[in-house]
Amino acid sequence: MTYVVTDNCIRCKYMDCVEVCPVDCFYEGENMLVIHPDECIDCGVCEPECPAEAIKPDTEPGLESWLKLNADYAKTWPNITQKGEPPADAKAMDGVPNKLEAYFSPNPGEGD
Ligand code: SF4
Ligand code: F3S
User: Fold this and answer.
1) Angle at Cα 41 formed by Cα 36 and Cα 45, nearest 5°?
2) Partners of 108 in the beta sheet?
3) CA distance 42 to 49
4) Mean of pLDDT values over 12-35
5) What is the pLDDT at residue 110?
6) How far is the CA of 41 from the centre of ligand 1 (A)?
7) Which Gene3D superfamilies does the UniProt entry name for this protein (predicted)?
8) CATH for 3-82, among 1.10.443.10, 3.40.50.11720, 3.90.105.10, 3.30.70.20?
């Protein structure tokens, strides 16, 4: 199994998660992060660190499409290990529904 980043990360992108991952398996897009499923060791420490509650174990039902999105973009987006500045409107975006359809960007972030 692995953990996956899901919808509510989009445009919240708090990045607290990257600071605690022991294997540095987060990858940065323009407005969200993903986890590389082959690198994640399932330790679970990132899950409670996310203020947006966007990180879930892939054992939860209904996350197949999110697992694929994480796997696909982890191949091309740059690695990120240090927390940067979250979007200015992160709090306002927390909990907005259907962010994937409305706001997802396939563009890479800057990484570190
Ligand atoms: Fe990293 Fe552990 Fe989270 Fe996987 S579960 S992404 S290894 S902190
Ligand atoms: Fe996203 Fe939560 Fe990390 S909002 S960047 S998964 S701390």
Assistant:
1) 95
2) 29
3) 14
4) 98
5) 96
6) 6
7) 3.30.70.20
8) 3.30.70.20
DSSP labels, 30-54:
SS-EEE-TTT-----TTGGG-TT--
Choose among 83, 70, 76, 93: nearest CA to 3.
70
Q: For the chain, which residues make up each domain, given as ranges? A: 3-82
**Ligand number nearest to the C-alpha of 57:** 1
Which whole number is the average pLDDT over 26-43?
98
Q: How far is CA 78 from the centre of its chain?
A: 13
